[in-house]
Design goal:
The chain is of the alpha+beta class. It is built from 4 helices and 8 strands, in the order βαββαβββαββα. β7 and β8 form a beta hairpin. α2 packs antiparallel against α3 and α3 packs across α4. It starts with a strand and ends in a 5-residue tail after the last helix. 24% of the residues are buried.
Length: 159
Amino acid sequence: MTIPVTIRLQQADFDIASEIAALSRGRTDIGAVVSFSGICRRDQAGGEGGDAIAALTLEHYSGMAEAEIARHVEEAVARWPLTGVTVIHRFGRIVPGENIVLVVTASTHREAAFQGAEFLMDYLKTRAPFWKREEGASGSAWVDAHDRDDDAAARWTKS
């Protein structure tokens, strides 16, 4: 059985409720839908001080990013009995309060939907080919990876 999978990289904002409805509309095989939405915040990551964030600029390697996300969606579908997946990631300039990313997973039961969504978000946060630059009052700077994100992703490594 092939499940519905949507992967989009786009500059435009998205509507979370519409995306969930599109995945689940008319489906009787879904018992759980889990969604995660990442939103641009004004505070710097981890309360590290410094300027408030005026905007983020996200860049990606077109073609490669979609292929890499698809590869990890395939892995999630192989690991858990998912019945649908949506991944939307924005790029370009994003201001505080706007959506950045959406991961929606569906399954017959909640455990698989939760685990699939967590797995995909941990991947997107650490290994997806995106680069993030923060803008503040004193200028802009590229954002370095955080060890805490790598630690979260490491739990999914197969032994």
